[in-house]
Amino acid sequence: MAKDPVCGMFVDEKTALNAQIEGRQFYFCSINCLDTFANPEKELSKLKKRMYVAASGALALAIMRAMVYLGLAFGAITVTWAPIPNIPYLTWGLLLFIIVTPVQFIGGWTFYKGAYEAIKRKTANMDLLISIGTLAAYIYSTVVLFFPGLFPVKERDVYFEVSAVIIAFVLLGKYMEEAIKKRSSASVRKLLDLRPSMATVIRNGTMIEIPSKEVVVDDILLVKPGEKIPTDGIVIEGMSAVDEKMITGESIPLDKKTGDQVIGATVNKQGLLKIKATKVGAETALSQIIHTVELAQSSTGNIQRIVDSVSAKFVPIVVLVSVLSFVLWIFVMGNFIMGLLSFIAVLIIACPCAMGIATPAALMVGVGKGAEAGILIRGAEYLERSEKIDTVVLDKTGTITKGEPSVTDIVPLKGYTTQEILQISGSLERGSEHPLAQAILKAAQSKQNESISLDEPKEFEAISGMGVKASINQKSILFGNKKIMNRYGVDIEKDIEKIMDILESEGKTVMILSVNNELVGLIAVADTVKHSSVAAINRLKDLDIEVVMLTGDNEKTATTIGKKVGIKNIIANVLPSEKAVVIKRLQLEGKVVAMVGDGINDAPALAQADIGIAIGSGSDIAKETGGIILIKDDIMDVPKAIKLSRATMKKIKQNLFWALIYNAAGIPVAALGLLSPIIAAAAMALSSISVIANSSLLRRLKIENLR
Asked: For residue 209, what are the β-bridge partners?
């Protein structure tokens, strides 16, 4: 058996529709599910067209009614007989009928389809009640229009507007919901795009270019500087620095030499590399991340909306009450017309227009407020979960820290000044694209060091894995790690080694500068903490939320950063696929987890978490997988997002409560025949207005001042 990725039904693989999409096999229960999955934009476009049809019809009807009432108010027309003022009854009714019919059967088609599916499954949903209520109003109005003699004069009114307004309002909410859901597979598709399309392969001594997907195990690949590595492999020739941040989360590129492992889709920054392919296709690290994201998304599923859970109980009760009212009026009171009118009134007063917009109305306001503050909330399901968040897991690189190396310490020796150390090292690194070199160059050219003028080095030589050697102003300069100093016989005194050990224990990369074989200074470079990280973490603690750091970086560096920002619970040396496992372990302990990250390596964990919060400056994959996106690259917005989500969810619950109570209170009145259908329609409209007004109160929330 296989699970349909759209409707979630289990289907027999032998009889199901099967299709390969982007190289993966899927099974669908129907051609409609296949089309929805393969063409989410097409399905959303259909819903948008239906919404426009319904909205246009409802607006036209509202304008027509307004013109009539304005005419009455100013005496331009007079009432000849109810209910149509000074206009031929059939002409007016036909005009309404012509406008509403497309709304009823084009705009409302999605509800009828949903109601049919619910009936087949022997259950009740919101679509069923919407279908019954709108069809009741439409059919009743049509009968009144074409057979007016069946009804008393005072009851010869049509309720086409009721049907059109209900469909238009609820379609708006449904469109908003589907617009959010359509991205369910976007993160996986973007992950697939990370792979380079072409690879340079050496076969039979000839260098050829082939599609990356055709690379096989043991192929010899040639990767030039700036190119992505096509697949996982091992370096067999060459030395270079490889940027693995997208996979490992490590901000500083790692030096690679013969015998080292490399990961597909990472970037070769400097030298030419020859690589032997060791893993291809589904076995690569990137494919494993994709697989992990898919598993996390499918296992989590969408939480059933509050509206649906309420309607499952509410719909059968409403239908039962309307039918009982109809039967009692006919067989007990002997009044067919009153029975029919009470039946219609019950369905109209109970028709969930207000319930249908309860979530989208609050969501629109809450999401709008969040967007103003740089916080994007991608759906009501994330709002539902946010109420119970008790644990926030923070990625280190690019989330707590800046995600790029910066100069943190300069230790001048032998009478040299800080400015002189920066001037010499900056001159050496001015032509390098290595991130560590860029950090030094940036420090040398910063505002406080504007007086520094960089020299042009001569006899420049880059020694891979060690550093650089050059001549400046006829002085021999060495700049790099201990290896280059040992190679050229530069003595490193014990006191200086102690200083280096202290700096390295803080997770910093230390580079040594020597002039004429004499050690004259140290420069330490590290990924630094963002200015707002400490305050944000303290704010989360104030909300009684446990904070955890989860990183692929080494334990020493992670512990150092943790001490600086006040995080005690630190989990380090974690691979991308293992991050999702850690999140799942926390969930199994009964915790409701929010994961905050920015890199490709965070995507599985973001998908597995109850709420994924993606840093906006991070990768597209993280943003597509996250349920909440922070545009401003500021984790101070994490506690703000949680509080905004809770405030919005509170409004949604208030809306649903009052909509349900309001409609439920009107049901017995309508069943007793004390509420005509037109009054029921007005009451229903008032219920919708109250929901919108309550939602609008969210605009008063000062998110920037949240504490």
From this structure: 200
Q: What DSSP string runs through 77-102? A: S--SBTTBSSS-HHHHHHHHHHHHHH
* The pair of three-digit structure tokens given for residue 216, joined into one six-digit string: 């096989």
DSSP character for 378?
-
Stretch 673-684: mean pLDDT: 68
Whether the predicted pLDDT of 616 surpasses 70:
no
Architecture field, domain 195-286: Distorted Sandwich (2.70)
* pTM exceeding the 0.85 threshold for the entire prediction: no
Map out the domains of the chain as residue ranges.
Answer: 2-38, 39-182, 195-286, 302-370+647-707, 371-400+530-643, 403-528
Q: Report helix, strand or coil for 307.
A: helix
Q: What ranges in 471-617 are assigned the alpha helix state H?
A: 482-487, 494-505, 533-542, 555-565, 576-588, 603-608
Q: 219, 232, 395, 602: which one is catalytic?
A: 395
Is 395 a residue of the active site?
A: yes
Is the peptide bond prior to 435 cis by the omega test (within 30 degrees of 0)? no
27, 45, 49, 183, 461 from 39: Cα distances, Å:
15, 10, 16, 11, 55
- What's the rounded mean pLDDT across residues 87-111? 79
Q: What does 496-526 look like in DSSP terms, one character per residue?
A: HHHHHHHHHHTT-EEEEEEETTEEEEEEEEE
Q: With 0-12 CB in 10 A as exposed, 13-18 as middle and 19+ as buried, what is 628?
A: buried
* Structure tokens, 527: 């990924």
> Is it true that domain 371-400+530-643 has CATH number 3.40.109.10?
no
> Taking the chain, what is the end-to-end CA distance rounded to the nearest angstrom?
50
In this prediction, residue 83 carries a pLDDT of 45
Least confident of 222-236, 262-276, 371-385: 371-385
**Quick one: CA dihedral 523, 524, 528, 531, positive or negative?**
negative
Place of tokens 């009692």: 328
371's tokens:
């967007």
> Considering only 16-30, 347-361, 577-591, which range has the smallest mean pLDDT?
16-30
Same fold: 195-286 with 403-528: no
Q: 571 with 582: CB under 8 angstroms?
A: yes
Domain 403-528: which CATH number of 1.10.10.1800, 3.40.1110.10, 1.10.238.20, 3.30.450.180: 3.40.1110.10
